[in-house]
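User: Hi! Is it possible to get a structure for several chains at once, not just one? Here's what I have:
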Amino acid sequence: MNAALTIQRLTLQHEQHTLLSDLQGTIPEGEITLILGPNGAGKTLLLRCLAGLLKPQQGGVFTSQGKLVHELSRIESARLLSWTPVSHNLPFDFSVLDLLLMGRYPLHQGYPQKADRFFIQKAMQRVGISAMQDRIYNSLSRGEQTKVDIARAIAADTPLLIFDEPFANLDIDASLQLMDIFRELQREGRTLVLSHHDLYSVRDLATSIILMKKGQLVASGPTARVFTADAIERTYDVIAREVTDPQTGDRFVRFRLKDEAKLAVFTEIHRSQRRLLHGVDEHRA
Amino acid sequence: MVRHILLSIRLPRVVCACLVGGALAAAGVITQGLFRNPLASPSVIGISSGGVLGAILAFYGGLNLWGFWALPLSAFVGCLLTTLVILQFARSSKSWAIDDLLLVGFALNGILSAISSFILSLSLNEFDKAPAMMNWMLGTLSGKTWEHGLIGSGPILIGILLSQRLAYRFNVLSLGNDVAQSLGIDLRRLRVHAVLLISALVATSVSIGGLMPFIGLVVPHFSRLLVGPDHRSLLLVSVVNGMSLLMLADLLARILMPPQEIQVGVLISLLGSPFFLWMLYQRRKMQSL
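Assistant: Yes, the chains can be modeled jointly so their relative placement is included. Here is the combined structure:
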């Protein structure tokens, strides 16, 4: 198994705060890796480091060729990976088609060709948004916007796709549909990294996971080995227990709240992180 | 006689109106693209005032006697510094929301205009300086000659052409800084180019006609209704619309109250401010949905 990306001793600081400390792990090539953790764990920060958008103070993320991601040339990086943040409104009323064409900017440099339109049509069909191509992105619901964002990433045709909370705004059937799309992308040999909040669907989706808490690594590795009741208790403030479904024999983890008072602890870190997370991107939607 | 009036008085004035209108419209499109906000424009966020202040300072200090380029160059420096200050706010880690940045621009605009007014008040008794300064602050095209048009046309035409080359990048930039960066846009370079272009366009237009508010705001907005948000078509259409608008406004300013001429900048402010309020109102309405 090759690593598409390797995280080595990654430490990220902002002003006096250490936001990510000494993270280690690998993103295996051709697999789906989930990054799990409570709010404020630093999932989005780690994703932005993986995408080469943040420059860590120590260590870093290395490509399979041994280069640091944030030191790749802009073209190299754009051909290697695509980054899809949580959907937000755009300042101008671009149509879905316009937006997807922009996703292929690294390939057409502002002069879209026939091939670009072909890839875009295919991506829209895959995500099931062909009927929306002339709609204004800002007029779509958050769930629909998420689908468009994902189609943009698919159309960009990179071997590595990074998504921040792709399931955040989707209803159940859209989530299941998206999981199928992700698995299909994986079968094509692409590597996917997603941050995720729903523990129930982890086993269905991920082949590899990274568990984080307060900017630190809890555990990482193949899902079957790492996704245990013990690891979940160390990541979230819950009591977890493993159950086997008597009918199917599937193993899954059940959990309940341990101590409600502890919820308040996270908000403090969360605040200092938000600035870095959104940078100047934050639009008042 | 008629021929002389047409060729040496009216026509150069029309050409100057076209140049200034086109330059400000183009600068407006780039400003909005750069700040990712349809409410931004060189005059709203103080870039034009910076240019006017630069020109007025140069005039007050007698720099215009040094050479022909002293005034436009000071206007350019004024625009450049103002844009850089706003951009510095935009990039600071304290993460200003984009709407707050506009407020920073408003404040800056207020300060710069106040300094300009102060300098004007200092030189009110100097009859060789005060009227010229006043004209810059109010914006007028009266008395413009072929010379103004010829010298202004170079930077403005080149500026518009270069802006057109950057146009698609502003489309990509509207996806957000992060996404644009991951799509291979060099944010730093794009910002530097945009700031230089805006400054050159605004400074040249200020040097010709003084402060012409709202063109950079109103024209891109209307053009967007016509051709959509794609900055490539938007820029061209805005330039044409900007030319037509300022030409018409200048005509009105000339004939509305004969024999007195209204300063065209004043006329545009009068029409532009209600329009700006209307835009704000529309935006609030959209947000409350």
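Chain B touches chain A at residues 32, 36-38, 90-91, 93-99, 168-169, 171-172, 174-179, 181-186, 224, 228-230, 287 (CB under 8 Å). The mean pLDDT of chain B is 85.

User: Great, thank you!
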